[in-house]
Amino acid sequence: MLATVVARLVQMAFVMFGISVLVFLIFFATPGSDPAARIAGRNASPETVEQIRHDFGFDRPLPVQYVVMMKRLFVTRDLTSFVNRGQKVIPEVLDAIPATLSLVGGAAVLWVLGSLAVGVAAAALRDTAVDRGLMILSLIGISAPVFWLGEVANLLSQSRYHDTWLFSWVPGLGYVPLSESVSGWFKALVIPWITLAVLYIGIYGRVLRANLIEAYSEDYIRTARAKGLSPTRIMLRHALRTSLLPFITMFGLDFGALVGGAALLTEVVFGINGIGRLTFHALQNLDLPVILATVIYASFFVVAANALVDVLYAVIDPRVRA
Amino acid sequence: MSPLLDVRHLRVTFTTDGGPVTAVHDVSFAVQPGEVLAVVGESGSGKSVSLLSVLGLVDRRRTVVEGEATFRGEPILGLSERALRRIRGRDIALISQDPMTALTPVHRIGDQIAEQIRAHERVSRHAARDRTVALLRDVNIPMPERAVDRYPHELSGGMRQRAVIAMALSCNPALLVADEPTTALDTTVQAQVLDMLRRLSAQHGSSVVLITHDMGVVAEMATRVAVMYAGRIVETGTVAELFDDPWHPYTWGLLDSIPPLTGPRPRRLPSIAGMPPPPGRTEPGCPFAPRCRAAMPICRLPPPEQVAGGHRALCVLDAPTRAALRPPRVAA
Description:
Chain B: This is Oligopeptide transport ATP-binding protein OppD. By secondary structure, chain A is mainly alpha-helical. In chain A, 75% of the residues lie in helices and 0% in strands. The longest helix of chain A has 36 residues, at 89-124. Chain B has an eight-stranded mixed beta sheet, with helices on both faces. Classes of the chains: A mainly alpha, B alpha/beta.
């Protein structure tokens, strides 16, 4: 087991190195995206561009540029933004992480519990009105765009009905750090959590239902029924347990991507200054150091989430264990 | 002696997209305490469905089960799922055909057996485990103390089927339904598993319904035989009656397809020409007539039941005609 984990960590480091090289090359060595010209701005004289190129080290060989960049990113941590001169990149990213982690983590709890409930209930009551109703609701949840859902939630809770008993507790938009106030953190995030989770509850619930129904046609479910086990036990211990692998795979991918910035729309709608927004603004300004930092940060979460999925696989399915 | 399981006029109809399809027509059979009843027939003849529907193990939403069945004198058809649950596993246990898929892949085999014990009896985890080890020893699994903690994929097919049998026997069931228990196994393992099944069912006092298509297995194991064709029992009797004096031409065909043990081997074993009728067939006549070498115009009418003691067959042929059509096989 330990050897597997170590091998996995080495693999992770390797993948992340590859990603950092790739990102570096895309932004610093792609024809047409001359970073010096970009920083110098429009109408800059060739001399200024040349000066900037020299100042930022863009006239040195690519491997050297890469090493310098990585050193400033990870070792000295003094890489500064190209756009807001003097603003350091690392603290900026570190500030955004807790907001995104809070948003995505809370939503993930909701969507895992919610979709387990939806999938299990629909499969157990297959072909009944409950099943059909849940599947239609899921489809609506999947189809409702998160920015629309978020705006509707804001409209209701922030303006229209803000003064009624129902929504008077809702604070203004924005993120409240957990360290500042636990209840404030919760109140500020609970509506964003639900908004973000709805889509995933729909997708995961439907996938889980399909997998459970497939499991129910397996011989071992008939064995379990022939043993005289209760329907609950058959569902949870035999059907659900063997249906979780695709669920976990999807969770790893989605969670990694969301923490890495894919929660952008939710962050924008609810005014949460997270990684998604940071990345988005950096892209708008082609702020290469910030992009580099956020992409490497995001890749870390995607890779880490997938490594975690591999470990969970082994926990859940003995056939995966070496 | 009253039968342990008594099934009368069982009729099973599946609702399919193409309309209702009757898989079992008017099937009656009884299992006496301590006996081994073999139900023989080719794939799709309704042998598994008959037994599974008695146990309520068919898809209830798509299946209509009609007729009567009593287990120990109490009606069993139409019982609620909750009441059936108390019978399943404890009084009637099932051994499935394919040991590769019959066990849940993610749980240790010991846990799966102990789970059944604890579903029916109030015993501690520890006691259930001890009983599981003993059961695994009974089915000749080497090192049972370690085998309890193995996952299904770590065992061979034969070992898995032994574990399935141990699980079936775990609550001393009065009746074991073995659905082609050796079909998926190697020939050498088949004999061992059959031996063990016979020894243990006798030891536990369980009756057995053995579903099979293998007449060799029937001769080896059974006391009585029911031959099924196209959802009907076409002939039933003791093993001796059926093997020495088969009445139904379908039974002849089954028996003739066993290779002889002595004398010159035929170059090709005889087979029954043609295919079984499609399940949706509605003609009233004998379903075997299109493939029957003794078919007559009268076979287009529903075949009469001939009875002599416990020996019954659904066929018009009388004894002299049978004797003329099927010369007795030369005894060894």
